[in-house]
Design goal:
Elements lengths: L1 E3 L6 E10 L9 E13 L3 E15 L6 E6 L2 E8 L11 E4 L5 E3 L1 H10 L39 H12 L1
Parallel strand pairs: 6-7
Antiparallel strand pairs: 1-8, 2-3, 3-4, 4-5, 4-6
Length: about 170
């Protein structure tokens, strides 16, 4: 995913890419192709990319174990400066290019932001009820009728301690 910047006039330019997940070295859980809309703004000493990435991924729900597909849509900005990188550069959204650079490879940033878009908690839907801890029934589909109010005997000593503290 190369954008040629040599000879590019100053101002705003639009690009669209459609790449396979294999070419970007993403693989599972990503499926289909990744579509990227790039708005490039070039000035004398910098290039600013506003990127809108669209990807599909297949996950297994953390609560009910169902397989589901989710659309991911990270939006990010990367600033490229022409010149030498300062020693104390800590900003990850600023990249320094050699003054004679003629192209920008956006594939590494695309890969990173696609991976960062994977949710930490993968839910098939926000109100997923999960599985019954007693019988394993999917509570989204049916109510199993199991007794869920019972207290695990391992917690009884702590509950006794709590009662003693509250009584004092």
């Amino acid at each position: 995913m190369i954008i040629k910047i040599a000879g590019l006039s100053e101002g705003s330019h639009s690009y669209q890419f459609n790449e396979s997940v294999n070419k970007l070295e993403l693989g599972s859980p990503f499926s289909e192709n990744i579509t990227v809309d790039v708005e490039l703004n070039k000035s004398h000493n910098q290039v600013i990319l506003n990127v809108d990435l669209k990807a599909s991924a297949v996950f297994e729900c953390d609560r009910c174990n169902k397989v589901f597909e989710k659309k991911l849509n990270p939006v990010y900005k990367v600033v490229y400066f022409f010149g030498n990188e300062p020693e104390d550069n800590i900003d990850t959204n600023i990249v320094y290019l050699q003054p004679d650079a003629d192209k920008i490879n956006i594939a590494p940033e695309m890969r990173d932001y696609a991976l960062l878009a994977i949710p930490m908690k993968k839910l098939c839907r926000e109100d997923c009820k999960g599985l019954c801890p007693v019988c394993g029934t999917d509570l989204n589909e049916a109510d199993c009728g199991c007794e869920k109010n019972g207290t695990d005997s391992r917690w009884l000593p702590l509950m006794d301690l709590k009662k003693k503290i509250n009584n004092n």
